[in-house]
Amino acid sequence: MRGMGASGALEDWFRSRGFEPADPGEFAGPAGRPDMVFSGPSGIAFLIMADEKLISDRNYFMEIVMRASSLRHACNFLYLAVPRLAVPFVDTEVLRKHGIGLLMLTDGDVVEVLASPYRSVGGRGGAEAPGAEEGLLIEVLDRISALEQRLSALEREVMGLRPLTSELRALRGVREEVRALSSRLDVISRRLEALSSKVSSLAARPAVPAPAQAPTPAPPAPEVEGLPSFFRDNPWLEILARRGQDEIPA
Amino acid sequence: MSEAEYKRKFTFGEDYGTSFYKFGPITCGERPEVIENRGYFPDESMIMFQVMGKPKEVVIGDEIAQFLGAKEELAERLVYPMRNGVIEKGDEKAWRVVEEITRYGLERFRPRADPSFQGFYVCASLSAVAPRYMYERLFEIHRSIDEETGLVRAVTIIPQPLAVAIAHKTPTCVVIESGHGNTQICPISRYPIRRAIVALNRGGGDANAITSQILYDAGYGDLAKEETIVRQVKEALGLVPRNLDEAIRVAKSDPERFRAVYKIPGTRITIDLGAESWARFLIGEYVFNPKHEIFQSYFSRGMPRPKDVKIGDVLFRGMLDFGEAIIEAVEKCPVELQPYLYRKVLLSGGNFQWKVPSGLEDVAVDSATKIKELLREKGVEEITVEMAPEPKFSVWRGCIIYGYAVPERFEWSWDRMEGWMKFRP
């Protein structure tokens, strides 16, 4: 997951929010350095990357969180990027408590699972009391952050529903096919029965010598075998078959 | 493949009813597919659409449920195009719904893997009082759908009463089709006798109006405003009297036998008309004969009297009783034909589904008996009145038979108002 694909996707994601990549070396300090850094008009964002080791090693998660916490005072936003498979093993409550956001990496795409709140640079866990204006700003930014979280939750919901919609559409198609096939089978079955009874009656009939001259054929009765019951003995079939020949409506 | 063989697979029926659109090919068998004949026009400024993308201009079928919002908004955005059987010429919203519903119906049955398919023979059915511009517009809708999809090989349009007569195997009869908003009386003798059609501005909706007034009088003023509850009460408690004066006299003398009690399903509410239970006979009588003097007190208290109205070119009469209306229609036909017409009166539509509860047969009757009584009072004897079995599907069935049996060479004629309209060379 640490390949170019994931980094590229993360860069795209931050760029779409007005950030540009910066050199992590410039932000190295006693607590180490982040894996990726982005800067933009709204501040500095650090990114720590984790891999699938999260699934099997609980200590690894704690190490990552501690590393991230030690960098928190040096940036305005801090995110942990985690492969999709490992996301269920991340305790988001712990991240929220430490002001760390969570990004999920999935098939070259990035989804914000938990938004990082804004923190002013230099402050350590709120030890320095901000001024009144700054406090107001932080409150507004926190609210925006909460809204972002709700939006990402909605985005996740919608993404989860998309595959269901296509499944539903496919099922509807199958239902139509089954229905059409079933109707066709009914028709075929009725015609088969009719043919079978005709064959039986012919077989049972004694052989007669052929007449010298064929009788004048009667007008062909409309074929209703295999059609729905409301066709049977319906005088309208003959009336309607003559439409356009000699009648004038009242 | 011969024409008959082709039509065995690809004849398609469409019934544009007031509440439901019934549709499907001949291969559906006995019953068509049904969806509500309505469309919803979403508000494109809704925040939901800014997130999810622009919605369709008009939404139909099951999808509507996802869009239904406040009641006030519904009246404006939810359109029932055939509510009165006739669409006004310039009512573009109603025509958009008809177009969308038609496209949906045809696409739903598009054959997936049949190389012989070259479009359906579509037989559509409209109200008997639909004016010529409705025929023209419906042809135009099918032509445009065919251009886009190739689903229509030929189309024809027939009046609903003709379809009912065909489905019930009766070439000579009078068909009375009564829906929510109006009633059409159409004599048929192998063809619909158009100049004899009588239209009434009265239907199931009027029975709802008097039911609401009865509930109000019995102290249920709050429930009297809820359309769904009023309809449930009408269906559960409404009775058709053989003779209204006699029914009221008997009911008042033995109130317990006629006591009308109805519990609204899923609630704790029970409606009990108590001493006013005799009024349940007014519900049925009002549909068949609103001229009885007892209704004057309701009109004077503000209940609207069914008025004569002109919709399109057709005059819908308000106060004519069903007996008078049948006689008026039949007497516009040749005298020689009249006895044959009275011999078979077919009742079709949801407004004739009245039940006779066990033990009340001495005074309550079904719709067929009531019509006979009304005609007898006016001196017409030797009458047979029948309820169409499965009235919901009879128009669609008639369309299927018509589409199957009428030969393709019989081209549409505006003089005859029959035949096949073809858009392809």
**Distance between the amino and carboxyl termini of chain A:** 82 Å
What is the residue-mean pLDDT of chain A, rounded to a whole number? 77
Reading side by side through the largest sheet of chain A, how are the strands ordered? 1-2-3-4-5-6
Helix content of chain A: 40-55%
- Shape, principal axes of CA atoms of chain A: elongated
Under CATH, the topology of the largest domain in chain B can be stated as Nucleotidyltransferase, domain 5
CATH class of the largest domain in chain A: Alpha Beta
How many domains would you count in the coordinates of chain B? 2
Structural class of chain B: alpha/beta
How many distinct folded domains of chain A?
2
How many strands appear in the DSSP assignment of chain A? 6
Strand content of chain B: 15-25%
The backbone outline of chain B, from C-alpha atoms, is globular
Q: Which regions of chain B are unreliable across 5 or more consecutive residues at pLDDT < 50? A: none
Percent of residues in helices of chain B comes to 25-40%
Mean pLDDT of chain B: 90
CATH class of the largest domain in chain B: Alpha Beta
Terminus-to-terminus distance of chain B: 19 Å
Describe the structure.
Chain A is of the alpha/beta class and 250 residues long. Chain A is 46% helix and 14% strand. In chain A, a hairpin with a 2-residue loop joins β2 (36-40) and β3. Chain A is elongated and about 105 Å long. Chain B has 425 residues and is α/β, with parallel strands linked by helices. Chain B has two domains: 3-38 and 80-165 and 391-405, ATPase, nucleotide binding domain (Nucleotidyltransferase, domain 5), CATH 3.30.420.40; 200-387, Nucleotidyltransferase, domain 5. Chain B has helices at 3-10, 47-52, 71-77, 92-108, 132-149, 160-167, 204-217, 227-237, 244-253, 280-288, 296-300, 322-330, 338-342, 367-377, 391-405; strands at 11-16, 20-25, 33-36, 39-40, 78-79, 120-126, 152-159, 172-178, 183-189, 191-192, 198-200, 240-241, 261-263, 270-272, 309-311, 314-317, 345-348, 364-365, 385-387. In chain B, a hairpin with a 6-residue loop joins β13 (261-263) and β14. The mean pLDDT of chain B is 90. The A-B interface holds A 154, 158, 176-177, 180, 183-184, 186-187, 222-223, 226-231, 233-237, 239-241, 243-244, 247-250 and B 4, 8, 26-30, 51-52, 108-109, 111-112, 165-167, 169, 171, 189-196, 333, 397, 400-402, 404-407, 409-411, 416-419.
